[in-house]
Amino acid sequence: MKINLNVLKGIFNNAILKRIILSLISLLGLSLIIFTLARIMPGDPARMALGPRAPEEIVQKYREMLYLDKPLYVQYYYWLINLFQGKLGPSLTSFREVSVDIADFLPATLELMLFVAIIQVTGTLILGTISGCKPGSAIDGALRVFAYIGICVPPFVWALILQFVFSYILGWFPATERLSSYIRLPRITGLVTIDALITGNFNAFVDALWHLALPSLALAVGAMAQETRILRSAMVENINKDYITTFLSHGLPIYRYVYFKYALRPSLCSTIPVIGLDIASLIANAFMVEMIFNWPGISKFGITAMLRKDLNGIVGIVLVAGIIYIVTNVIIDIILTILDPRIRRGGQQ
Amino acid sequence: MVKRSVVAAIVAVVIIIAIVGVAAWYLAAPPTPTPTPTPTVTPPVKSLIVASFANLPYLDPHVAHDESGRAYIHNVYDTLVRMEYREGTVKIIPWLATRWEMVDNVTWRFYLREGVKFHHTNRELTAKDVEFSVMRMVIMPEGMGYLLVPWIDLDRTKAIDKYTIEIGLKKPCGVFLYLASYIYVVDSEEVKKNIKTPGPYGEWGDFGKGWLMEGHIDIGSGPYMLVEYVPGSHVMLAKNEKWWGDFAPRAPDNVKIVAIVDPATTHTLMAKRELDISTVWLPPETYEALDEIEGVDVAKLHYYGMYFLMMNSRKPPLDDIHVRKALFYLFDYRTFLEILPQHKEAEGIVPSNMIGFIPFPEPVEYNIDKALEELKKSKYWGELDKYEIALTWRAEVPGEDRVGLLLASAAEKVGLKIKVVKLPWLKVVEAMTRPDTPNHIEPMWITADYPEAISMVYLRWHSASHGTVNQNEWFDLPELDKMIEEVLGTIDEKERLEKSAELQRYIFHLYPSIFAGDYIGFKAYQSKYIDWPSAKVGFVGVFGWDVEYWKMNVYPEKKT
Questions:
Q1: Strands of B124-268, DSSP E
Q2: Which of A39, A63, A294 best tests the B interface by mutation, with the highest count of B CBs <10 A?
Q3: What ipTM was estimated for this complex?
């Protein structure tokens, strides 16, 4: 596929810059909302962190350290000052800087998201295309049943089923964690597969993939089912259009050109945004699967932070989720711009 | 000329076959370690995998206060003395201190063991480290230091010489040796090097807590040492071969503490022999399922714990002692044991396994007639329908609502209205910080920190615990505080236990709570290849101290 340099210029001139500025404003607004919500939730975070038996004077010291004895706008002011210094404040869950916690937990979830994305995109493309190309056939019917089951069954149920069948009964895959106990890998990026490749430890790489298989599949199945249906519907709609009929009547190869090039490409325009947002939502929604597989991700940590009313932790994690959503939306927009020439032409003056 | 499509198809088929072939090979034979640029460890022979409920156990011994934190520090850090259950009672045994003496009513002297080394620095542990550790616990009482704060006089606590430490008290304390078993000794020099300022503790900054919680190393001298900490996943400990104490002949070389809370995952791992000891926080039906796995048994652990339904004595109609006494008779104690089987019948106001426990001075039983009789004596008789008693249950504890409904259904028979309210834990904690809480009755499990009855009494009914989850009664009785402090301050054990008995009778007649049952912790473990002394004897002791890795024997050759 040839990409026009002017196209790239068009993309990266004003549109992206505008998006970045608007995104920063959105993040600021998000931080204010979540900052306020976290603080009006019931519970004393200092007491939660220090336990029921800590003396009141120590609890009070912590309240002062977190500025909880100050008005809300003063607390937000101090939080912003810290933010501009690159700090998110101390976590009351781990008693470390929130940024340290995020650096520890985020890579595990990002790695999971990456592999879920690979499975989702590949599966959706293959199954949605097959189903769309042969509507009403037996294979379409079977895929439709799969889609309904996939949509109805929540990811954590898939996780339990996969763990039970493939780990417990068949013993093909490990039940928990990211690596086997006897493998030690230096932490470079925090993504175990990447770190294994960087250090040339192929053994660890395969072991990491082996551990990623079940949690990735559990998270991918439901979303993939939904996206398959969307792609299938779009394919069917586009295949029935006049221009496709014209191509077929000219005798172009049906699959290589007509379906996969001229029908699939516009069909993806409605599917890509859904795929992107499903993947981005994993940052928050993966916690049950992370708990079942003892996956040390940020989603699981986020739930712990919320249950313990770890104010700084909650705000930090929500901001990370917001950034991921924003980045995902930008990526979706870029892909759509590449896929759909109408967007490019509309963007050029 | 072969068509491009055919070539592409052949290439695709070859690639697919290659991937499937490799995957099948790995599935059939899981990868074994091969020499790589990064050092790998050959699989340990004797290893133990223990579940913890906490994603992030507190790694600082002076911060840990929950069960998972206590279990970690109990194995990694040495204390001045230890409590041990022997011959039907609890004895204080030498640990870092080989002997001790009471110099006077307010001064204790401990003589330390020589040659004890810290794990990572190999520096010898001295009295200076003990002095620093005591100071750290008192100035930073975020963990068990709260036990020491009312008693320790830091100005009179000092190292006399390299192996002698003198601890000064503000007032006589009859239970001090129990409290000394919580003095976890840390490497003072390492802490001082890693203090971050500013912090909440003035010149001491954060007291090195931030650094210690990052989990790079531990600063203890105990039987096991920290070798790996992956937040949210696991903590890996290795046997400290330099430890001064005795290991069981087949004590584990490595211990992995993993954060597993999900019952289904626990079941899968235990069936696959990838988890050796479960947590204590699983639903009862999960323990039944685990017990059915071949080679897995469920240990019953008798902590100093009890389930109370705490009644707020300042909220009408519970401000009337007759109403509280009526509720005593309205609780079906037998059915409670069926609802929450991890209990046994309560026999006193403190758990029956505590030293100095006395049975209830009068029979406590489910008796509607007696309840009605008491209600008729109350000032609210005839107006009970105007008062609705709110009884909470925690959203995070499934099944607890049935306890409330049990009481509510019985109360209805005598005209008392009880409303069972579901609240998240955060709201419960918030509500209990003030006496005008909307909730009349708060059910709660409370565990005491040392084996004498007075430890539970202090925790539950001294005014120091007002506003905490340890009590909801809000008694405004200065004489009660005085009695509790008098017992604590009595040095002679016999006299102390007599006063404690008197105090328990006094408290009983205040009818402060419904004493539902003595708590028994359940933990599933791999009895086929693990010899766990606490499981065999039915452990009696402090919550979190039941898993002492150095006393366990592991037989991996029996693991099938």
A1: 152-161, 164-169, 224-230, 234-239, 254-259
A2: A294
A3: 0.83
